[in-house]
Amino acid sequence: MHSKVSIIGAGTAGLVAGRELASDSIDTTIYDQKTVLGIPVRASGIISINGLRMSGIAYESAVTNTLRGARIHAGGRIMDISASEPVAKVLDRKRLSDICEYEAEHAGAKIIKGRRITAQMIDRLHKDSVIVGADGAVSNVATHFGMGPVEKYVLTYKAEFNVDMDDPGSVDLFFDKRAFPGLFAWMCPNAKDLLEIGVGVNPGRVNSKKAIERFLAMKEVKEMIGSAKMIDNGASVIPLRMRKKIVDPERRVLLIGDAAGQVKSTTGGGIVYGSAAAIMASHAIRDNIMHGKDLGEYERMFMNKYGSDLRLHRSINRVYSSLESRTIGRIISVMNFLGMDSFVSKYGDMDLPSLLIKRFFLRGLI
Ligand SMILES: Cc1cc2nc3c(=O)[nH]c(=O)nc-3n(C[C@H](O)[C@H](O)[C@H](O)COP(=O)(O)OP(=O)(O)OC[C@H]3O[C@@H](n4cnc5c(N)ncnc54)[C@H](O)[C@@H]3O)c2cc1C
How far is the CA of 66 from the centre of ligand 1 (A)? Predict the structure, then answer.
């Protein structure tokens, strides 16, 4: 039985898995093609406080802002969701990567940087180790082991501006299936004086660079940015569906994080589910190496805990992606009129939409 583990990819998911496995004294090596981890930063860092606690990452020194809620814009209407307590932190993603790297190394994992793992190298590593694919949305490991495609993804483009904000406690989301098909556009106060704007769009339908130019030309965005200078920008990709297969117990291969498509289809957030998957996969590997237990336990654990919420995120994304922004605007008006904005503010959970649905049932609202 293989008692070594090779993790391909040192993003958050790979590093959290490395930390967990090495803490259990398992011989773990993490490989990444980058010579410096965490750059360039192409993703945002809005992460629920509950999710951060679950991840076990000592994230505090990476926090740049705290959020209480979100404003949802569609068809000229706004729904303001604002909790009484902070619900999420905005993290500096490079700093988060540094913390995760330190934690994995400190636990005893070896990190080999500047090494792009090819198909032949995967085969070589696979001879004497369990393989964990943590190599992001376009996963070589998933392709090599035929673990199914990602059925839906969006292309993103984001930019940062130095803007002083009076109220940096909310993120603004703009839904418009023509301008931003597949996901939405956002404005996020990364810090009190740092505004991030971004878009996520279906590939093929709209070019992400064109979409962000259109977003920058919108009145609300122009007013926020004024004459501020853009200080960083770049494109990336977010998988919005989980792959059919995330573990192959016979061949001893597991996928975690974006490589597995463990992302919330509603928002594209992947740190919480990816970290949870990394922890569960590591525990399944440990139990397999130490007690001969089935590696398939990883998928069962993950789907038991998050399966219904992943399906809900997917359904919500399908609904808003199919509706005209006018229609979403009308729904927002009705919801505001019924006081459902306050209900969502009180009981909504950015990771687990099922909690809100349960509350709706309890109140007899559905
Ligand atoms: C614009 C944008 C905004 C986002 N905003 C948020 C947010 O606010 N909150 C949130 O929770 N999530 C957000 N996400 C999603 C989040 O960033 C991802 O879910 C998360 O980073 C995935 O982590 P990962 O470790 O699975 O993969 P990655 O971070 O993609 O890491 C994969 C690693 O594998 C390496 N690699 C790939 N192929 C190879 C190879 N062949 N050999 C060696 N190394 C390889 C790469 O260099 C990389 O370091 C956002 C994403 C984007 C694009």
Answer: 22
For residue 216, give the CATH number of its domain: 3.30.9.10
pLDDT surpassing 60 at residue 366: no
- CA 44 / ligand 1 centre spacing (Å): 10
Residue 111 lies in a domain: yes
Mutate to test the pocket of ligand 1, among 140, 209, 238 (most ligand atoms within 8 A of CB): 238
How far away, in angstroms, is 273 Cα from ligand 1 center? 12
Q: Which of 173, 204, 239 is the last residue of a domain?
A: 239
Q: Percent of the chain having pLDDT more than 70?
A: 99
Q: Which residues line ligand 1 (CB under 6 A)?
A: 8-14, 31-34, 42-47, 116-117, 134-136, 140, 156, 158, 198, 236, 238, 257-259, 263, 268-272, 274
Residue 205 has pLDDT above 90, yes or no: no
The answer, yes or no, to whether residue 12 has pLDDT greater than 70, is yes
Flag whether pLDDT at 2 surpasses 80. no
pLDDT for 89-117, tens place per residue? Answer: 999 999 999 999 999 999 999 999 999 99
If one residue of 12, 48, 143 were mutated to test the ligand 1 pocket, choosing by the most ligand atoms within 8 A of its CB, it would be 12
For 20-71, the pLDDT digits (tens) are: 999 999 999 999 999 999 999 999 999 999 999 999 999 999 999 999 999 9
- Confirm whether 345 is domain-assigned: no
| Type and span of the H or E element at 286 | helix 271-291
CA angle 20, 26, 29 (to 5 degrees): 80
> What letter does residue 232 receive in the DSSP assignment?
E
230 and 181 share one domain = yes
Q: In this structure, which residue's CA is closest to atom 22 in ligand 1?
A: 258
Of 152, 122, 124, 156, nearest to 140 by C-alpha is: 122
Q: Which residue range(s) make up the domain with 121?
A: 4-41+92-151+243-317
The rounded distance, in Å, linking the Cα atoms of 154 and 214 is 17
Domain shared by 255 and 132, yes or no: yes
Query: For residue 252, what is the domain's CATH number?
Result: 3.50.50.60
Give dist(CA 164, CA 189) in Å, integer: 9
